[in-house]
Amino acid sequence: MSRNHEWLDLAPAYALDALDPAEEARFETHLADCGRCREAVEEYREATAVLVDASSATAPPPGLRDRILRQAVERGGSTESPGADRRARGFDADGSRARGGWLAAAAGLVLALVASWAYLHERDQRLALEAAYEESLSRVAEQDSLLDVVLGPGVRTSRFAATGELPTGHVFWNRARQKLVVAVHDLPPAPEGRTYQLWGIPPGESPVSLGLFEGDPDREALVTVNVPADLEMAVSAVTEEPAGGSPQPTSEPFLVADW
Amino acid sequence: MPSALDVNEGDEVLMRRVADGNRRALGTLYDRHGERAYGLALSVVGREADAEEVVADAFLQVWASADDFDPERGKVSTWLSMIVRSRAIDRIRATKRRREAIERSAEADPEGLSAPLATPEPSPEQQARRKEIRERLDAMLSEIPEEQRRAITLAYFDGLTQSEIAETREIPLGTVKSRIRAGMKKLRTYATEARRGEP
User: For B101, which residue in chain A has the nearest alpha carbon?
Assistant: First the structure.
């Protein structure tokens, strides 16, 4: 058995985080220089998907999604990674908290009860304020992101030519950030069971789907989509498609912008 | 402000949008993977309130460290599952440490306040869910011997190292290592064949 083969034997347990700390540290040192073992670890990790399947998808509590998105906005995008060192989990010698003994446990219990009472008392008011704050932060974050795209260096602008009188609009292409911003006025919401689909059309080639949008009741649509870096767009266009979108346009575009 | 999602947009594109600070993309990621994440968290921690905290922590970690995701090294779903499991194991280990601290306090002062708080056994929900998982794994992986499945389950869902499994199950460490190695190889084969069968 080669030396490298012995290391490979550790890959299955490593993928399960089941190596003892010292062995794990040695294996990680080896992994830094061994592509074969890294590949094996990745394969074993992919295989653990079977274990996740066995644990059975379960509907999370209602409200969890909103809570996560609210906290994400509060934290912004530059929060330090709390799990960057996920390998260290469980070995952080946090047992030092135990040394306070029963007195600390009792004091902690009393504090927890007081805190819980205060929390419940103030919760409703705080939740309302948080919701309003979150909405404001969200709007500001989205508009900042939009301005970054539209006002960035080298942004190209084109005007939509409508096949009818309405709607009208402009389109901004930021190639450096691979983003396209579409602003359309006087566009009614897509009919029931239908959606609007945005296309990028390279010269002499088939249209490439860039995204879907529904339109707003106020008839103003402002949409940001990603554009593949290698897409050479000659034309951007919008069609109306069945809900869920189409692989290729099934109707004539009602908005067309030349580049 | 509406935001478009490409019909063909995959998880990797979604992760790039999350890395750009796109909150809607994070919401879409949650819509796609939230149930799977919550099921996994529940399987490890047992209690719904704990599972909710785990999933929240995990998605906020994704939000904070989406740049770390490397599509060359695996799928988004695998990366997310690793984070969820890691946070869940953190949580049960923290609970275990607190419990041990309370037990030590109780030993030092048997009449003290901390004694009634010690709850060394898994919750009934946790036991029931583990039983369900074992039954599902038995059905899915019938070609993997039961003792190998058991060793893998203890490592994955209980967060036990090979030495801890050997100690708690009172079997030689070498036996545990052999079982995990052999079982994981079969699991890899099973997963590869399952992927080939996907449309």
Answer: A98
pTM confidence score:
0.56
Q: Which of A37, A58, A220 to mutate to test the interface with B (most CBs of B within 10 A)?
A: A58
Cα separation, A259 vs A243, whole angstroms: 28
According to DSSP H, which parts of B46-141 are helical?
48-65, 76-108, 124-140
Best CA proximity match to B17, nearest among B31, B29, B2, B33? B29
Residue A88: name the closest of B86, B97, B164, B56 by CA. B86
B130, closest residue in chain A (CA to CA): A55
Which residues does chain A have within 8 Å of residue B112's beta carbon, measured at their own beta carbons? 102, 106
Residue of A nearest to B34 (CA): A60
Q: Which two tokens stand for residue B185?
A: 């190889």
8 A C-beta contact, residue A211 and residue A241: no
Among candidates A54, B32, B38, which has minimal Cα distance to B24? B32
pLDDT tens by residue, B46-74 = 888 999 999 999 999 999 999 989 888 88
ipTM of this complex prediction, to 2 decimal places = 0.83
Q: Compute the nearest-CA separation of A125 from chain B (Å).
A: 22
| CB crowding B94-130: b at 16 or more within 10 Å, else e | eeebbeebbbbbbeeeeebbbeebbeeeeeeebeebb
The answer to whether B55 touches B103, Cβ cutoff 8 Å, is no
What separation, in Å, do the N-terminal and C-terminal C-alpha atoms of chain B show? 36
